[in-house]
Amino acid sequence: MAKITIVTDAWHPQVNGVVRSLDSTIEEVRRLGHDIMLVTPDRFRNIPLPSYPEIRIALTRYSTVAKEIDKFQPSFVHIATEGPLGFYARKWCLKNGMPFSTSYHTRFPEYVSARLPLPQSLLYGFVRRFHNAGNLCMVATQSLETELSLRGFKNLKRWTRGIDQSLYTPQPLVERPFGLPRPIFMSVGRVAVEKNVPAFLELELPGSKVVVGDGPDREKLQRAFPDVLFTGSKFGKELADHYAQADVFVFPSKTDTFGNVILEALACGVPVAAYPVTGPADILGGHPDASALHEDLRQACLNALTSSRIAARDLAKTFTWEAATHQFLENVMRANGITLAAE
Questions:
Q1: Whether CATH 3.40.50.970 fits 177-316
Q2: Residue 60: which pLDDT band, with cuts at 50, 70 and 90?
Q3: Global pTM?
Q4: Lesser CB count within 10 Å: N end or C end of the chain?
């Protein structure tokens, strides 16, 4: 069995698709008998990122991280993020001649340029150099692979996502969920500028709007849209219960690289409305019975009202963590010149 070091600056208490993907993959990899050592911010002295207290930044030195990796003596190294820990692990791999894989989870250039006056071209150059130093970079979708390839990223391989079918499942619909009239249009995720939540809140729609999640923009948006129910963050079964009462799940983001929340909604039998962009288009394209994609988000929401809850659930069943983890393991080993299956 393999000894795999996974390095990530994105970790608990963050609530996002990166952490959920890593959590589920690590659980499945360990179930298969592999030994995993995590290099995460909670192993070191860390501080909260200003305006994002759930994001912890590790305050440590290269020598400390290198010592931890040396002690474990991994067969393979996977670096999930371009943060301080990711850079220290990258340096260790290059210094020790250890091939390594990376994964592109977040549109770092777009997110940074939305907050700071930095050009995306400069930021993409930074991110491209980080990933191209490895032997393989994992991406979740075909459209993201095509886009990054055009930007000069090399050795791109697919790593899709899965869904917990036993937790996220359809439930009987109540007449007035949350005490609100139907139809219920729901969005779930971090309430932050990059998620484009106002594009959903500003729509003229019948029924009610619900936002599940927290983030730096929540208080401002609650004041601006008093008729919208903001529930705060929900987890586990409570989150699944919220999803299951929605009539349409609205995904307003144009910058996500995948959209794990889309799978969670589909698994609960909820049709999805979204823009036809990377992530939603890859998951939902070709499935108009389970979703609605449109450049006009309001039209997508209205179209999704006639989509099938059964078709939504059936689409979610095609995404499993078992299959996604097999891709992950094959990619990690391929980065080291080992092929598990015939191409």
A1: no
A2: very high
A3: 0.92
A4: C
